[in-house]
């Protein structure tokens, strides 16, 4: 890997009319767009005072993006605009996985809310021409009134259906399915195929999609991590039963292990709650995560777990040279 290089469009900018407040960008997910040969890096705005999250004056939150062209040049920061009062406080695809349609349109999902009400999620279809991202249509919402509602949805497409996995604050994660990426059936709490509920503590999940099987990467409650914040270590993976909408328990494996003692010395265990999954070739996918020790000087490394397939993944697009 090359040395990390800052993307100017994703830097922090002063906010007019709010002295000392800066608008940064977080939860960015890059994705290759084969029809234009570009990379779309989509995140959302976040406001800081000094080095810290501005707790007292977070303004409205919305998606922002930058585009890397074929020559390797990044665009300026742009806003994905949605003029809907339901998202007046926040609307975002933060940390969300997206799906590129054959015609270049992008299917994604929003979490959104207004007036401190619990957030909803919905399927979203966008147009993208290699430089500008615009919303074509937003589907009907799914709801959950516990805590902040439904958060950080990610979608994928498998066997001609769309699947959404959703973070929630009621001790579960959720899955929903749609024929068109817009109209999702009511969400179902993640469970194993033997009926056992899976305890998830307000943490995102992500899809690992192979042409011959659908998998989920996630965190969950376990005897080894009972004192780890939100059980955010280790990262697990299991195959999904796409008809029953559950995880096949006998397929569960650890992708990235818990390092340390999650029972007696949990403050020294690095959290792995913000992560992503990328298909990099027909033979390999990877899981990336930035560790975080919030009670130990915020230390942590960037980790990459490599998954080798024993059958080629036919889902990958034809990459533009």
Describe the 3D structure.
- The chain has 321 residues and is mainly beta.
- The chain has a domain at 7-187: 6 Propeller (Neuraminidase), CATH 2.120.10.
- The protein contains no helices and 23 strands.
- The strands form 5 sheets. Strands 1, 2, 3, 4, 5 and 6 form a 6-stranded antiparallel sheet that branches. Strands 7, 8, 9, 10 and 11 form a 5-stranded antiparallel sheet that branches. Strands 16, 17, 18, 19 and 20 form a 5-stranded antiparallel sheet that branches.
- Strand 18 (235-241) and strand 19 form a beta hairpin.
- It is globular, with a radius of gyration of 19 Å.
- The relative contact order is 0.09.
Strand/helix succession: EEEEEEEEEEEEEEEEEEEEEEE
Record field, number of beta strands: 23
The average pLDDT is: 95
CATH 2nd-level architecture of the domain at 7-187: 6 Propeller
Radius of gyration: 19 Å
